[in-house]
Automatic annotation (TrEMBL):
Parts forming coiled coils: none
DNA-binding in keyword set: yes
Domain RNA polymerase sigma factor 70 region 4 type: 119-171
Protein name (record): RNA polymerase sigma factor
Organism phylogeny: Bacteria, Bacillati, Actinomycetota, Actinomycetes, Micrococcales
Domain RNA polymerase sigma-70 region, chain residue ranges per copy: 25-93
Domain of life: Bacteria
Family according to the record: Belongs to the sigma-70 factor family. ECF subfamily.
Alphabetized UniProt keyword annotations: DNA-binding, Sigma factor, Transcription, Transcription regulation
Stored InterPro entries: RNA_pol_sigma-70-like, RNA_pol_sigma-70_dom, RNA_pol_sigma70_r2, RNA_pol_sigma70_r4_t2, RNA_pol_sigma_r2, RNA_pol_sigma_r3/r4-like, WH-like_DNA-bd_sf
Length: 190
């Protein structure tokens, strides 16, 4: 790849929040980014999502992205690989959850215990601070690395670790009777 002065000019304009210049960069690299995403996801819809995410991240992180030989394409391609890997992990976790989730009898309404459990879980999550709830969703359910989750919610990774630890502890305390694992007796050490 060689320096492309036209692309560098577009990039410099995009750095000054020029959406039209960014749109032209999108037009310039979309096909190649999409092909890479399609090769990694093997699904047209997922490839479109991965492509959109890569360009969104380019826009969002534009002030910290350094073009390689005058092009943002290498950064985009690395991002596509990472986003595709995250998508595979997330999809795998979701499919595992679906395979192992308790099944509701066909045509029946959930029993009172299931309804109460769902309500208590929803209330416990709502009681958390919004940042703590977001961290739980990103890190625990979506398997986003804690540093990225911290950046997404606007805090430092060390702060995110502490907040996540405390949020998990609050959920365990509020929902302790739903945990199928036995709790050690008070005053006894393990």
């Amino acid at each position: 790849m060689m320096d492309d002065p036209a692309e560098l000019q577009l990039w410099n304009r995009a750095l000054r929040d020029d959406g039209e210049a960014f749109g032209r960069l999108f037009d310039l690299h979309r096909a190649r980014v999409y092909r890479r995403a399609l090769g990694l996801t093997e699904d047209r819809h997922n490839a479109e999502d991965v492509t959109a995410t890569a360009f969104f991240e380019l826009w969002r992180k534009r002030r910290s992205v350094t073009p390689v030989n005058g092009s943002v394409l290498p950064w985009l391609l690395v991002t596509v690989v990472n986003v595709s890997r995250n998508l595979r992990r997330s999809t795998s976790r979701y499919e595992k959850f679906l395979r192992t989730a308790p099944r509701q009898p066909a045509g029946g309404e959930p029993d009172a215990e299931t309804v109460e459990t769902r309500q208590r879980l929803a209330m416990a999550l709502k009681a958390l601070a919004p940042i703590d709830g977001a961290l739980l969703v990103l890190v625990v359910l979506e398997d986003v690395p804690i540093a990225e989750a911290a950046e997404a919610v606007g805090i430092k990774p060390v702060t995110a670790r502490v907040r996540l630890h405390r949020a998990r502890a609050r959920l365990r305390e509020n929902l302790h009777d739903l945990d199928p694992r036995p709790r050690p007796a008070e005053g006894m050490s393990c």
